[in-house]
Amino acid sequence: MSFPKPPYHEMEEFINRQQKLKDLQSLNIEPYPHKFSPSISCKDLYDKYLDEQDIGHSDDAAEGKTPSFKLAGRLVLFRAMGKNAFAHIQDSTGRMQIMLNRNLTSLEGYEKKQETDPAPLKIIEKKFDLGDIIGVEGNLFRTQKGELTLFVKKAHLLCKVLLPLPDKHSGLADKGQRYRKRWLDLIVNPESKNVLVKRSTIIKLVRHYFEKKGFIEVETPILQNSYGGAQAKPFTTHLHALHQDMFLRISLEIPLKKLIVGGLDRIFEIGKVFRNEGLDRTHNPEFTLLEAYAAYLDYNDLMELIENLYEHIALTLFQSTKISIDGHTIDVKAPWPRITMIDSLKKFASIDINKLSDEEIKEKLLYESKIDPKSVKKTTRGALIAEMFEEFVEDKLIQPCHIIDHPIETTPLCKPHRKEEDRKKGLVERFESFILGGELVNAYSELNDPILQRDLLEQQAQKRLEGDEEANPLDEEFIEAICQGMPPTAGLGIGLDRLIMFFTKAETIKDVIYFPLLKPEE
Question: Which of 12, 231, 325, 448 could lock 470 by a disulfide, CB 3.0 to 4.6 Å apart?
Answer without folding.
Answer: 231
